[in-house]
Write a structure and sequence with these properties.
63% of the residues lie in helices and 0% in strands. It is mostly helical.
Length: 184
């Protein structure tokens, strides 16, 4: 509603400022690093990771795999439904450093997907994450999120909404009564 009221999309000042800062930070080694990091939020990486997680889970922990899989699947649906409903154009202030994705900009699917995957692993029923897990997960989410802005394929608000909506989705999913039997 704030970004594209009545389908009339505009770019708020903070989105422009974020893209300008990202552009001014350009450096060859950062280009390479962010091009590599951004892939960690793609389904080409996350779906096999969830499958591996399910495969390595013991029968007692199959609920972990179901929870993480449901979190990722719901996040994908949420991201693409929002893209279709809002239809915000991609940024064009500076040239993108990768091929511009064909879908809408808002929200960042890579950000929603990596956030949902990491948050689901950390918040799975019956699991209490260690501080080191939270820090590592937060750094991974931040790296993928920042890569989307740095590469000029998303506005900062696309990424911020992606993180917040994915966290809200995973926490809401975890509150469902179906998980009550596995909470410690």
């Amino acid at each position: 509603v704030a970004v594209c009221p009545e389908k009339a999309c505009r770019t708020p000042w903070f989105d422009t400022a974020g893209l300008v800062v990202a552009h001014e930070l350009r450096h060859a080694w950062l280009d390479s690093a962010f091009m590599a990091l951004t892939g960690l939020g793609s389904l080409f990486v996350l779906v096999p990771a969830v499958a591996w997680f399910a495969w390595r889970s013991s029968a007692r922990k199959r609920v972990d795999a179901v929870f993480v899989g449901a979190a990722l699947a719901g996040a994908v649906l949420m991201a693409h439904a929002a893209k279709w409903l809002i239809a915000r154009p991609r940024p064009d202030l500076f040239p993108a450093l990768v091929e511009m994705p064909p879908d809408a900009s808002f929200p960042s699917a890579h950000t929603i997907q990596i956030t949902a995957g990491v948050a689901a692993c950390l918040l799975r029923p019956g699991h209490t994450p260690a501080a080191s897990e939270v820090v590592a997960g937060g750094m991974l989410i931040a790296a993928v999120s920042l890569s989307r802005i740095y590469l000029q394929v998303h506005f900062p608000s696309d990424v911020m909404v992606g993180v917040v909506s994915a966290l809200a989705w995973v926490m809401a999913l975890r509150c469902l009564p179906v998980w009550k039997g596995v909470l410690r």
